[in-house]
Amino acid sequence: MPLLTLTNAHLAYGHVPLLDGAAFSLDDGERVALIGRNGAGKSSLLKILAGLERVDDGTLQAQQGTRRVYVPQEPLFDAAHSVFDVVAEGVAEARTLRDRFEAHAPEDDLDALQTRLEALGGWTWEQRVDETLQRLHLDGAALVGTLSGGTKKRVALAQALVAQPDVLLLDEPTNHLDLDAIAWLQGLLNESTHATLLISHDRAFIDAVATRIIELDRGVLRSYPGNYAAYEMTKARELESEALANARADKLLAAEEVWVRKGVEARRTRSVGRIARLEKLRATRVARRDRVGQVKLELATGLPTGKIVAELDDVSMGYGDRMLIDHFSATFLRGDKVGLVGPNGAGKTTLLKLILGELEPSRGRVRRGSNLQVAYFDQLREGLDLDATLADTISPGSEWVEVGGARKHIMSYLTDFLFSPERANSPVRTLSGGERNRLLLARLFALPANVIVLDEPTNDLDIETLELLEALLADYSGTAFLVSHDRRFVDNVVTSVVAWEGDAEFGGKPGMWREYEGGITDWLTQRARARVVAAVPPAAMRNAAAPRATTKAKLSYKEQRELDALPARIEALEAEQKQVAADIADPALYAKDPQRATALHVRATQIDDELTAALERWEALGSR
After folding, report:
1. Looking at 505, 526, 547, which one is the last position of a domain?
2. Suppose 75 and one of 93, 156, 175, 377 were both cysteines; which one would form an S-S bond, judging by CB atoms 3.0 to 4.6 Å apart?
3. Domain closes at, from 469, 503, 526
4. Residue-range definition of the domain harbouring residue 613
């Protein structure tokens, strides 16, 4: 029996239904990604499944005793509370019951209290909180008000996990998380035994975590087994079939409208049936919800810069005792698309300001190109006046904008970004998070700029808009600097990445930055190789190059046999990994054998773990 079952659900705000007879079920152990356009109703659906909101019509059934925990997109905590106290709110019922048991009143039923406490694990709630804090690398004594956005998201996840839920409901869990934190969350969810339903627009994250994809499209929920690549292929075929069916229906309706206008007598028997069919065709066309159009993105490029945009020579920058950039050199040319990658607080914003002239280095030299016109995408939306209208935000005091050398009316321009003319005079505060990001993009692209800076542009944008933004940036003739933790987005856009490598555990030092050709995937591959080398001490590397007899003398017979067998084991795992990846990429698999598809995704994760363990064991034995 499913843990949650939603049947014939209806929900509407205004005249557009968000849920229109939607149905959904969630089984134990599933990890389901919920995707869909901004404003489609995904967050509302998540709150309904969490029991926080109700549908207008329809039923939601939860298996008896199912514990549901919801983590919102922007968790709110009392800034004065400690991390321990906030996380302990996840076991609030157990804490209250134990306090009642230990200071019981005469009217209390101690047997009932004890039974409930045991069911909740209430006798050891402090231990559970401490273990969860350690697992998520959180300092229980820290005040929540001092934490970054990414650390607050970890606190929210800790609060949810300590409650030991049967169903975990996550709204955009990767927002504000850096790459290492996203990788940590992937591992956490893949190792969990509870069911998970998450909203995300991070395609790489979805591929790594989800066993099934659910799309909310025009009020209806559709299920797609497998990864995001398989969903894309299936969805493209569905949309093509839908377009053909709609075109045939519209053609038939047009022909019947021509016929009826010729004045045929409806009283004649053979005409009555045809008129009834016409009325049915009209009703079907009125009821049909066409797919929402795509955002139309254009960039106002401005005048070209010189060939060199910025040249950094042995640049260093720090604040107090903290070094953020140490002896960094690089040259950025016109047309480069550069991704800045590093953990939160590493100094990405400082480095950007040095490149663009907003800061001067404490050491070294920065030479900037001529005629730089810079436009910023503000991650925190600080530049948005919530009381201003959409039209005034895009073009204050004017009804026209100029994009790509052409004048466009503000109403038409807003329509390109899927804002109806009726909303042009609405205040910004009425927009959702995704719509505000879309408005920021509209304002950014209306500015004549030859250098654009996009600071976390992917937060809250739906996947289709992300893909259009990728294509636009790839064709952009100016220079772009991107700060993003969305691997797929960065890989599809940038020509190089500037990565923070100040991890002392692997030979780094504070403020170390390096530039790599390619995207995040290329950088991670090169970093992984460097870390394997850094993990082997120089003496061990000399031993590895020594005669084989020396190595054998330091290993037991069993260890030597294991070392000799490891290359074949690694080769076999790599071959299996390649075959599994090929099988997973086959869209036919998900229609023919969805259970095997799920098993292959599980096996792919296992192979990664086994391959890593084998390589580490090979290094450890070889170093001896």
Report:
1. 526
2. 156
3. 526
4. 536-623
Residues 358 and 449 in one domain: yes
How far, in Å, CA of 421 to CA of 32, rounded? 36
Asked whether the whole model's pTM tops 0.70, one would answer no
CB 607 within 8 A of CB 552: no
Q: Are residues 17 and 95 in the same domain?
A: yes
Highest-confidence segment of 102-106, 416-420, 427-431, 432-436: 427-431
- Both 593 and 617 in one domain: the answer is yes
Q: Do 73 and 26 sit in the same domain of this protein?
A: yes
Pick the closest to residue 354 from 316, 395, 408 (CA basis): 316
My answer on whether 477 and 401 are in the same domain is yes
Residue with tokens 């969903």: 231
Report how far residue 442's alpha carbon sits from residue 461's, in angstroms, rounded to the nearest whole number: 13
Given strand 374-377, what is the order of strands in its sheet?
374-377, 451-455, 479-483, 337-341, 496-500, 513-517
| Residue 558, domain CATH | 1.10.287.380
Amino acid at 351: L
The three-state secondary structure class of 275 is helix
pLDDT of residue 550: 41
Residue 531, in any domain of the structure: no
Q: Distance between alpha carbon 10 and the CA centroid of its chain, in Å?
A: 27
Q: Which of 435, 425, 430 has its CA nearest to residue 460?
A: 435
* Burial class, 439, CB count within 10 angstroms (exposed 0-12 / middle 13-18 / buried 19+): buried
Of 91 and 337, the one with more pLDDT: 337
The confidence band for 134, taking pLDDT boundaries of 50, 70 and 90, is confident
Supply 440's token pair.
């920021």
Q: Which residues contact 361 (CB under 8 A, 6 or more apart)?
A: 312, 315, 316, 317, 325, 354
The answer to whether the CB of 622 falls within 8 A of the CB of 564 is no
Q: Which two tokens stand for residue 347?
A: 């100094």
The CATH number of residue 423's host domain is 3.40.50.300
* Assigned domain for 518 exists: yes
- Beta strand 451-455 with 406-409 is unpaired
Give strand pairing partners of 64.
Answer: none
Number of domains in the chain: 4
176 close to 153: Cβ distance less than 8 angstroms:
yes
Sheet containing 308-319: order of strands: 322-333, 308-319, 363-368
Question: Mean pLDDT throughout 491-516?
Answer: 85
Highest mean pLDDT among 239-243, 252-256, 294-298, 396-400: 396-400
Q: Which helix (H) or strand (E) holds 21?
A: strand 16-26
Q: Which positions ≥6 away from 469 have C-beta within 8 Å?
A: 297, 441, 457, 461, 489
Distance CA 515, CA 191 (A): 34
Residue 571 backbone dihedrals phi, psi, to 5 degrees: -65, -40
- The answer as to whether 367 is a domain residue is yes
